């Protein structure tokens, strides 16, 4: 398992449009991806789970990736979060 932490800078926090793009992109990966925010966690492949986190601007989320090709998936997610959240 590999992970990274990211502090949300988008004023809307972890919002629907990019969360949907992320879930669609992750549907093609064999990895398991979990987003944690405080005591809450969500399967990143499910837009409903991600939205239920209700992560707001200024909060830090931790993204955990495990499985085949986890390093490449983690790097893609790091770039995605930097560009969209």
UniProtKB/TrEMBL annotation:
Protein name: HPr family phosphocarrier protein
Matches recorded under CDD domains: PTS-HPr_like
Main subcellular localisation: cytoplasm
Subcellular localization, as worded in the UniProt entry: Cytoplasm
Domain HPr: 1-85
Cellular component terms per the entry's GO annotation: cytoplasm
Biological process per Gene Ontology, one example term: phosphoenolpyruvate-dependent sugar phosphotransferase system
Keywords of this entry: Cytoplasm, Phosphotransferase system
